[in-house]
Amino acid sequence: MARLADYYLVVGYDLDKRVEGEGLGRILQRFPEKDWEDSPFPQGIELFCQPSGWQLVPERQPASFFVAVLTDINSERHYCACFTFWEGLDNPQLQKAKASEADEVDEGLAVVQSAQVFAPKSLVLVSRLDYTEVFRNCLGLIYTVHVDGLPVPLETVIGNLLTCIIPIAGGSQRTITLGAGDRQVIQTPIDDALPVSGSTVAQLFRQLGIVNVLYLFCAALTEHKILFLSSSYQRLTDACRGLLAIMFPLKYSFTYVPILPGKLLEVLSTPTPFIIGVNSFFRSETQELLDVIIADLDGGTVTIPECVHISLLPEPLLQQTQTVLSMVLDPELEVADHAFPPLSTQPSALKIQDKEIRGVFLWLFARLFQGYRWCLHIIRIHPEPVIRFHKAAFLGQRSLTEDDFLMKVLDGMAFAGFVSERGPPYRATDLFDDLVANHVERIRQEEACPHKVLNHVKELAELLFKNENPYPAVAMHKVQRPSENSQSAVNNPTPFPALDDVAVQLFIDHAAAKLKTAPPVVKAELKGMVPSGPPLGDTVDRNGIVMANSARRLEVVRNCITYIFENKMLEAKKLMPAVLRALKGRAARICLTQELNQHVLQNRAVLDDQQFDYIVRMMNCTLQDCSHIDEHGIAAALLPLVTAFCRKMGAGITQFAYSCVQEHMVWTTMQFWEAMFYSDVQSHIRALYLETEEGEQHNNSEQLDGSGSRREISALELASEQSRLWPTLSKELQTERVQKEESTVFSQAIHYANRMSYLLLPLDTSKNRLLRSSGLGDVESVSNSYVTNSIAGSMAESYDTESGFEDAESSDVANSVVRFINRFVDKVCNESGVTNEHLKALHAMIPDIVQMHIETLDAVHRESKRLPPIQKPKLLRPTLLPGEELVMDGMRVHLIPDGREEATGLMGGPPLLPAEGAIFLTNYRLIFKGTPNDPLVGEQVVTRSFPIASLTKEKRISVTIPMDQFVQEGLQLRSCTFQLMKIAFDEEVASDLAEVFRKHMHKLRYPQHVQGTFAFTVGQCGKMVVEHKTKDKNQSLRTLSKNLVKSAKRTIGRQYVTKKKYSPPTWENRSSFQSELDEDEISVSEEVDQSSLTLSSTMRSSDRQTMSNVVERACCRDYQRLGLGTLSNSLTRSKNEPFRISTVNRMYTVCRSYPGLLIVPQSIPDTTIQRICRCYRQNRFPVVCWRNSRTKAVLLRSAGLHAKGVVGFFKSPNAPASGPSQADSTSLEQEKYLQAIISSMPSYSESSGRNTLSGFTSTHMSTSDSSDKLRQPKIGALMKQVMGTREDVPGTFSRGALGQRAKVISLSQPKVSGRNPSRGKWGSIRGSGRLSAYNPDVGTRLAGKESPQSNGGPGEALFLRQQKAYLYIIGDKAQLKGGKQDSFQQWEVVPIEVCDVRQVKNSFKKLMKACVPSSSTTDPNMSFLRCLEESEWMALLHRVLQVSVLVVELLDTGSSVMVSLEDGWDVTTQVVSLVQLLSDPYYRTFDGFRLLVEKEWLSFGHRFSHRGAQTLGSQNSGFTPVFLQFLDCVHQIHLQFPMEFEFSQYYLKFLAYHYVSNRFRTFLLDSDYERIELGVLYEEKGERRSPQVCKSVWDYIDRLNKKTPVFYNYMFSPEDDEVLRPYTFNSNLKVWDFYMEETLSEGPSYDWELRGRQERVAEETPERPDSSGPKSQRHIVWPCYDSLSKVVPDAITKLLQDLQSLEAELGQTSEKWKDTWDKIKNAQRTETKLESKPSFSSSLLMSSNLSHQRRSQGVYLQESGVGSSINLALDCEASATSTPAAGRPSTSTLYSQFQSTESENRSFEGILFKRGALLKPWKPRWFVLDKTKHQLRYYESRRDKECKGVIELAEVESVIPGTSAMGAPKNIEEKAFFDLKTTKRVYNFCAQDSLNAQLWMDSVQSCLSDA
Predict the structure, then answer these.
(1) Following DSSP, what letter does each residue of 1161-1177 receive, concatenated?
(2) How does DSSP classify residue 1013?
(3) Selection from 598, 657, 647 nearest residue 622 by Cα
(4) Are 1515 and 1006 in contact, with CB atoms under 8 Å apart?
(5) Between 1590 and which of 468, 996, 1596, 1685 could a Cys-Cys bridge form, CB atoms 3.0 to 4.6 Å apart?
(6) Residue 139: CA atoms inside 13 Å, Cβ hemisphere, count?
(7) Considering all CA atoms of the chain, what is the largest pairwise distance in Å, rounded to the nearest integer?
(8) Rg (CA), the chain
(9) Are 1264 and 1246 within 8 A, CB to CB?
(10) Rounded Cα gap, residues 347 and 350, in angstroms
(11) Which region holds residue 47: left if phi is over 0, alpha if psi is between -120 and 50, else beta?
C-alpha cells in the first residue's frame, strides 16, 4: 500500500525577491510540515512549477496542468503534479514609481500599464505514484471548491487527499472521495513491474514517426543524450514516459528530467547520457549542443549531430521491427494498392494501439535477449545471490560479435541493472520472463512472416492492456469543474486562502494512528523459479552459418588426433593441412577440445616430442582465430588442456603445452579471465550443493525431461532451490554455507593466480620480455576503468621487497605479471565477497607463485635448447647460370600464396603454396626453391624467381603461417616481370639477417653506376685471362671511343668535365646548356664547326676508316637497303639522290642522344642542321628513318619543338609560318628543311602546278594507283579518330582537322562537352562523339560543309584535297595550341594527345596489381577484369596503335610523315618502330626486328637505363615500361596476323623479360654516346668472349635459334610487300599471357641454360603410344606448375625433336632443325604445285600462294581452338595438344571441311586381316584407330589416301578374343583372332600374332572407356 499523495503545497509569486526583473516563486504553504521518513521532501519545486520562469502578465490566462518528474538522491522518482492559475494583483510597478530602482524594472513590466496585473499561483501534489488523471481531478477539485466557494472546508479536502492510501499493484479498483461530493475510481495495475503507459507510446509515434522513434530508442539504449522539445509541458512528460515504456525490460538509469526549468539549462552540457525535455521557448539555447540528439515533438523531426553515430538494431531485426510497426500504425499501407481494398482498415483505438506498439518492442527484446539466462554465472548463492553475465559467450553463440548495437547495450548500465534485477533464479516472474522462456521457439518460426508476428504482438498487447485495465471501465467518476461564470470573471477578488495547518495535521495524525492499529496487510509474494528457456546452442545453429560438410571436417579432426595418439605420425602428417584448414570453423575447434579431453587421464597426458609438436600446432591454430574476448569459449575449453599435455625433457623436467601457446591476445584480456573464473566458481558451487544433499536426492540430480532423456540440473535451478530453502535453515547452517562458498571462491582464486602465471610468463623470460609486457600494458590501460584499485595500489610498493627476488633479468616481466594478477584478484574477490584476510593472503602469495614459476621455466628453457630441432625439409640448391654467383646463401623461408589462386588449390588441383624452402640472392636473380607444405604434393619442387634488376617494390609484411604458431616477419617483393614473392622468414632466421638480406638486395637492385649491373660484372674473373689476347685488335677502337668522348666534352662545354667520369649529365641540364649556347648564334656555330673540323683533320686516316666501318653498324645497313644513301665517298655520291648520310653528329656534338650518322635531305648543308637543331627539344631535329619503296614517301622522327625556350622562334608555335616577312633566319631554315623533304618526293616533283586545287587533284589522280583512291575515305576516318574537330571556313581550314569528334574508345572522361569546341582549338584524341569511326561520308560532309555529290562534285574534290598534304607532322596537342596555318603550305600538323610517361608508369603499376594481386579478394570491384580496365593499359595500347595505323595509311597513300612528339625518345620511338613494322615485311623477320630495335630504340637513344630505373641515380624516377608497351603492341599485331612474322610469341616474351633483367648489355645505358663512352658499343664486334657469357641478347638469340626452334613461328608464310592494318579497338586487344603465366616447376623459362638440365630427364620417358602398348600414358598437367610448351609440345616441334633423338640413336650427325624444316617446306611447295586441289594442312603451314583465302582463314582459325595443325594458328608458342579440344559440338564438321592428305589423328595403326561378308575371303587391310573422330578406318594399303570403310566406335558394344574361321590366313596362332561386336554386325579380325592382337584389343578398349 502507498500514499496517493505525499505532500501538498501552494507556491506563489514572491513579490519581495525579484532579481533583475526575473520573478521567483516561493512555497506559501506545505502539508505535512515535517518530512515523511520514507520519502523526504524534494527540493527546488518552485522552479518546476513555472519552468519558463515566474512572470506577471497583464491578462488572466487559463489554468494549466502538467506533471514534472524529480529524481532524488536514491534515484526514486517523485511525480509533481502542478495546477497553475492566475490571481490579480495591484501593479507593483505603480507602487514603486517613486522608488529608487524604478529604472531597473524589467522591460516586460514596462509594457504593462494597467493598474492590475496577474501573478501565477500553483497547487502542487508530490507523489511517488504516477496517476496523472487522478492528480488532475484532485487539484481541479480543490480549485473548484475555492473558486465556486463550495460549502466544503478546503482543509477537509486536503486532509482526505493526503490520507488516502491505495495499493501499488494487484489490479484492484479503489474508489476515493475527497469529501466534496466527488467520487473517483483508481485502477491499479496487476503487475507493477510492467510500466503503465496509457496512450503515451502511441502519441510519441504519431508525433515523430516510426524511423525517428527507432533512432531515439537505439540512442537511449546505447547511452546517447536525448533532448525533447515541445511547447506543451504535458507532452514532454508523456513523450519521455513513452520512450521509457518501450525500453522495458531495461530500465533507464541516467539523468531523466521530462521538464527542465529554463534556469537549469546548463544541465544540458553534462557529460553523462540523459533524457530531458525542454520548452521550445528555449530552442535557440539548445543550438550549440554538439553531441545531443534533439527530438522536436511539435515539428516531428529528430536531429542527429554529425559527430554522433547511433548504432542501429542488427539486420534483419531492424527491417522486421519496422515492418510490424507500420502494420500496427498504418494498416492501410499494405492494401493501399489493392484494386478492392477491404472496407475498414482503421488502426486500433489509441489505447490499444499503444499496447500493440509496446508488444512489438517486447517481441523485439525477446529476440535480442533470447537465451540470456544460459550465460549467467552464479558465483554466490548465500547470503545474497551474486550473478555475472558472460557477455562473450552470449555474443558468440548468437554470432553477433561484430554487432555494434548489441555490444553497446550489453556494456551499458541498463543491462547491468537488468542482470542484477532479473538474474536471481528465485523471484517473482513477469510477462517478459515468460516470453523469453516459453515463446522463443514460436518467435523463431514466425519471424519471417509479418502477419504471424502481428498476431503474436496483438496477444502481447492484450496482456499489456489487461495489466492496466483489468476491469471494464466503470462510469463512477464524479468530479466538479469550476462553473463557467467563475472562470470567466475577470476580477476574482478573493486570493487563494491560507489554510489552517493544525486542522490538516490533525487529519494526517488521525489516519496514521488508525494505520498503526490496523492489522498489517500481507501481500502474498509469488516467488518461484525463473524458467531459463531453450539453451542458446540450438536456437542459433539453424540461423547461424552452417559450415559446409562440417561433419566430414570433424571426422578429419578426430582421425588426425587418433593417429597422433596411436603414434601413426605419417598418417597424421598427411591429414595435418586439412585439419588446420578445418580448424577455421567453430565446430571443428570445439570438436578438437572435446577430443583432446578424452586423452587426458588424471589431469595429465605425457606425449613424445613429435606428438607434442602436433598437438601444440593444432592448439595454436585453434587459438589464432579466437578473438580476444573468446566468444565461442574455445580458449576456455583449452585452458585446462594446455596445463595437462606435456612432454618429458630429461633430468626430471617436464614441459607443458602452455609454454608454447602464449602468443595469443586472449591470455592478456582481463574479461576472459574473469568469465573463466566465474564459470569455474559456478561449477564448483554447484558441485558443493549437489554433494550436501542426501544420497537418494543425489541420484535425482539428473532429472528426467519430458522426453525421458536425462538432463543435468543447471546451477541456476540449484540456486533457486537453495534460495527457497534459505529462510528455513538454522543460523548455524546458514553461516556454514556462507563460509563454504567463500572458501570455494578463495581456492579458485589461488588456482587462477597459478594458471595466469603459466600463460603470461614467457618461456624465455629475458627474450620475449618486451612483447609480453607491452601486451599486458595495453590491457592495463584498457581495463583500469573498471578495476578497483584499492589493494593493487597499496601492494605495488610492497610485493617486490617481500618476495625477496632480485633477479634483474626477469623482474620487469615478473612485475607486470604480478600487477596483472593482482588487479584480477582484487576485482573478482571484491565482486564475489571474499573476506579481507583471505584477500591479503592472496596478495602475499602471488609474487611467490610467479617467482617459483619463473624458476621452473628457466629449467625448461635450458632443456628445450638441447632438444634436437624438428626435422625440417632439406634446403634445395638452385641451379645457377654461368657467371651467376650467390651473394647470400639460402635463408629458410615460407612462400605464402598471393592473390593468384591457381597454385593454392582453390581452383582445383593440389595446393602447391604455401611452400617451405629457402630464398637465395645471387648477383643476377632472387630465387625461391622449396617444397609445398601439403604432404600430398610434397615431392614436387616449387621454384619462383625473378631478376634482381626487375624488382619494383619491396615492403615488409607480417604473416601468420598456418602450420606454425608465430606471426613471422616477412617481405613482399614485386617484380616488373610480373612476379610476386610473399615470403615469411622462418623463426630460425634472425631478424638482423633478414635486414642484411634487404640491404644486399637494394644494393644489387640499384648499383651506383650501370657498370655495377650483372651484365657488366658477370664473369669478371674470366676477364683477366681473356684480356691480353684481344688487346691489339681492339686498340684502335678503344682509343677512338676515348677520343670521341673527349672531343665531345670539349665542345659541349666545361660543365661536363667536372662531373664524375661516368655520369653523363641529366637531361634537364642538357637543355639548359643548349639554351645558353643559343644566345650567341653565330659565334657558337663557328666554334662547333671549327672543333669538328680540327677533329676530323687530326684523326689518323686508319681511325677515320674504322670510324666509317664501325658506325656502319645497324643503321647504315638499313639505310642502304632502303636506298637512302651510302657512305661510299662524298665525291662519287650521285647528286641526284634526294638524301645523304650526314656525319655532322659523328662526335655526338649536335645531339647527344642521336646516332653518329643521320639521313638528311641532300640539299641541306651541315651548318644549317646545327642551327635547326636548337628549335627542338634535346636538339633532336627531324631525320629520315624509313622510306616507302613504292610511294617514296619518307618517315621522319624528331622531338617536339621548344615551346618558348628558343629566342625568336616562329611566332605561332605549331608550324613554321609562311611568308618572307619573317626575318628570323632559323625559322626560314626550318622551312627550307621541310621544303627539302617535300621536294624529295617524286609525287611533288612531278606535280605540274603548285598546290592549287586543280593541280593537286590531277597530280593526285595521275600518280596514285586505284587502290589509293579506294583508301582515301579510310584515312579521313582514321584522322577523325586520332584527332578531334575544328570549325573553320572551308577556305582557310587546316587539312588535318577533319570533321566531327571521332568515336575513340577511351577509358578517361572526355574533357570537352558535346557542343562544338571553340574556334581555333584542336580536338583531342580522346573523342566523345558517337559517329561511326569508319564512315567516309561524315568526313566528306564536314570537310566540305556540304553534302557530298553523287557525281563527285565540288564536295568530293575538296575532300580529296584536304586529304593530301605532302608532309604531315604528327605533333603533341599540348604544344600546338592556338597556331594558325596557311592553307597553301605543303605540310600540315596533326595534333594528337599523347600519353605521358607518368600515365604509363601508373597504368603499369595497376596492371601489375591486376595480373599479380598481392592478396585474394572477394570484392566484386577488385575482380581481374575490373582492375584491368582501371589500369587503362589497354587504352594506352589502343592509342599508340591507332596513331601508328594512321601514319601507315598516310605513308601508303604517298604523303610523308614526321613524328614529332615529346622528347622524341618514348612515344615517338614506339610509333616510328610500329609504323615500320606494319609497313615493311623485312622488319617482321629475325634480322629485321633486331635491326629495327637497334636502330630506332638503341641508336636513337631511348633511355633504357633511366626508364628502367637501373641505377641509384634513376631510382626515384621509377620504372616506366615504354619498350614493354611497344612489345605488347607487336604481340597484338602478331595475334591478328599470325602468318606474317618469322618469330614466335615466345621471342617477344623473351625480349620483354630480358630487357629488364640486366643479363645482357644490349638494353643498358641511354644512348650510343654513353655506350661508346663506356666502350660497350663496339666490343661485341671486336672481342670474342668465352662462349657461355653472351653480352648481347641478339647473339644469345641467334645461338639458341640454331639449337632449337623455340623462337621460330612455323606459320610464317609472308606475302610480298604486305602492309598490315590491325584493328586497334579495345575489344580487339587481348591481355598478353606474358603477364599472367607462371611455371612453378622451374621458374621463368627465359634463361635457357637452366632449362636444359631438367629437359634431359624429361626426354628419357617414351612419348609415343604405339610403342608402349596399352599402358596409360597420361600425365597430369597443372597449368601454373608445368611448362606447357615442354610437357605438351606442338606437333612440329615434337616431330623435329623425335627426328633428332632418332638420328642420335642411329649415330648419325643430326642436321640443324632449320635445314630439315626448309627441306620439308620446299618439298611441300613442289607437291602443292602438282596437286590439283591443295590440301589444307600443308598449304596452311607451308605455302605462300593462298593470298586470297589466307586472311579470312587465319581469322577463322584463330577463333576455333581445335585440332593439332590448326592450333598452330592460335599460339605459335607450341602449346597445341595432339588431340583437339573436346566438348565442341562442331568438331567433326570442322574436320570434314579439310580433306587431310596425311591424317594427323592416328592413335594406333597397322595391318589386320578382315573377314569379308558371307563367302568373301579374308583380306589384309591397313587399319587406323582414330581416337579423335572416334572411329576405326581402313584403307587398301598404307599409302592409300581414299578410306575404304569406317567402323564408328560409338556403335561398338564389345571387343572379345575370337576363333579361327574358314578361309583364315595360315600359320597364325589361335590367339591372334578377335571379334568386334557392333550394334549392326560382328566384325572378325586377325592380327599378325597374339601380342599384336592383344595390343589392338586394348587400344580399342581404351578408346571405348575414354569416351
Answers:
(1) ETT--HHHHHHHGGGBG
(2) S
(3) 657
(4) yes
(5) 1596
(6) 28
(7) 158
(8) 49
(9) no
(10) 8
(11) alpha
Least reliable range by pLDDT among 930-944, 988-1002, 1120-1134, 1510-1524: 1120-1134
Before 32, cis peptide (omega within 30)? Answer: yes
Q: Distances in Å between the alpha carbon of 1440 and those of 1470, 1472, 1589? A: 7, 10, 36
Region of residue 1683 (left: phi > 0; alpha: psi -120 to 50; beta: else): beta
Distance, first Cα to last Cα, the chain: 92
SS3 content of the chain, % helix, strand, coil (to 5): 50, 15, 40
Residues near 819 by Cβ (< 8 Å), separated by ≥ 6? 776, 780, 792, 796
CA dist., res. 1072 & res. 1076, Å (int):
6
Which residues are CB-neighbours of 1458 under 8 A, at least 6 positions away? 1182, 1195, 1196, 1197, 1198, 1234, 1237, 1367, 1368, 1369, 1370, 1387
List the 1367-1372 sheet strands across, edge first.
1139-1142, 1158-1161, 1183-1187, 1194-1198, 1456-1460, 1367-1372, 1387-1392
In the block, cell 533470447 appears at: 370
**Cβ proximity of 1356 and 1336 under 8 Å:** no
Handedness of CA 1553, 1558, 1562, 1565 (dihedral sign): positive
The x, y and z cell numbers of residue 814, run together, are 615478473
Total count of residues recorded for the chain: 1907
Q: Pairing between strand 1158-1161 and 1139-1142?
A: antiparallel
Q: DSSP letters along 1655-1709, please?
A: HHHHHHS---HHHHTTS-------TTTS-HHHHS--HHHHHHHHHHHHHHHHTPP
Tally Cβ neighbours within 10 Å of residue 1426: 13
CA nearest to 1584, candidates 1111, 1045, 1102, 1022 = 1022
Asked, as a colleague might, if the bond just before 914 is cis with ω within 30 of 0, I would say: yes
Could you tell me which of 237, 234, 199 has the C-alpha nearest to residue 348? Answer: 199
pLDDT in tens, 1462-1508: 888 899 999 999 999 999 999 999 999 999 999 999 999 999 988 88
Q: Where are the alpha helices (DSSP H) in 693-768?
A: 695-699, 715-725, 731-760
The DSSP secondary-structure symbol of 54 reads B
Q: What angle (nearest 5°) sits at the alpha carbon of residue 1858, between those of residues 1855 and 1864?
A: 125
> Given pLDDT bands bounded at 50, 70 and 90, which one contains residue 1818?
confident
- Are 272 and 255 in contact by the 8 Å Cβ rule? The answer is yes
Cβ atoms 623, 635 nearer than 8 A: yes
Helices (H), 1331-1396: 1336-1344, 1354-1363
In degrees rounded to 5, what are phi and psi of residue 541? -60, -25
Supply φ then ψ for residue 1180, to 5 degrees: -90, 85
Lowest mean pLDDT among 45-54, 129-138, 145-154, 814-823: 145-154
Closest by CA position to 4, among listed 238, 192, 178: 178
The Cα–Cα gap between 362 and 459 comes to 11
Q: Cell 500553483 belongs to which residue?
A: 122
pTM of the model: 0.54
The set of cell numbers assigned to 1621 is 592494318
Sheet strand arrangement including 1845-1848: 1845-1848, 1831-1835, 1818-1826, 1804-1811, 1882-1886, 1873-1878, 1852-1857
Q: Which residue has the cell 527507432?
A: 214
Of 1284, 1441, 1454, 1303, the closest CA to residue 1376 belongs to 1284
Which of 1739, 1483, 1492 is CA-nearest to residue 1620?
Answer: 1483
Distance CA 114, CA 1853 (A): 123
